[in-house]
Amino acid sequence: MISKITLQDVTKQFDSKLAVDRVSFQVPGGAVFGLLGPNGAGKTTLIRMLMDILRPDSGSILYDGSRLTSAHKDRIAYLPEERGLYRKETVRDLLEYFAVLKGVSRQQARARALEYLAKLDMSDTAGRKVEELSKGNQQKIQIAATFVSDPEVIILDEPFSGLDPLNLRLVKRLLAEEKKRGKTILLSTHQMNQVEELCDRLVMVNRGRKVLDGPVAEIMERYAEPALVLECAALDGDIPEIERAERQGNGWKVYPRPGVSPAAVLRALLEKGVEIDGFQRASTPLEEIFVKVVEAGEGVAHE
Q1: What is the pTM (predicted TM-score) of this model?
Q2: Pick the residue with more confidence: 86 or 210?
């Protein structure tokens, strides 16, 4: 894993409050990385340190292997949770302004502004004032303003707020395109289903400390239920390999007895003549994993 951003034992304290306590993790280049945690966990402080708005009291933050400095700021773009647009400006002028702020030429800024408006299906709004747009369309303009300067790293804090399903699809498509272009995207959101769908890796913090870290697929596997979901009409008779079975939609969720493998359960069912149209291992939604880890105060850190 090639790291774009590396945090090494980063600590930040405000008066008597320890906001971030010796947190370490790596954000891979060209990946979508989830930063999760309950309110007050330290996410905003971490983001502000990644933006070089705040400096850590101890530890270090590296960008491409070098210590993060203000010189890296033009390579990083940030969509804050607290929105802020110049409402009296036209959409095109606003996007050009944000691009020029990051060192883009005026000509390139205009071309990129029009490009991102087209990607978000908003070309017809270029000459309109921001205040004339709906809340959802203003959110899309915020997202376009984050990408328009062609940054290497994009930090998005609750980017899906206020988007309807159609616009949500457009924004997710844009994120996928930027990832293909090699951009590194750090996503902070409470919408766990979006993290499951979009993120390659995640880190979770709670009370200022890292409690979970690793590839999303491995974390989902680690917390998966010891059960199988079967597509079958009926489960007749007693099957010794199964501890219990629960009806689930048009199928069943079956729990093997301790020490019995899923393969052994499937063999037993087939020997009993059960017609199985499909099966998969039961998964635990990331939202449930999030709640479990936070409520249990777990400190399971995997690199």
Answers
A1: 0.85
A2: 210
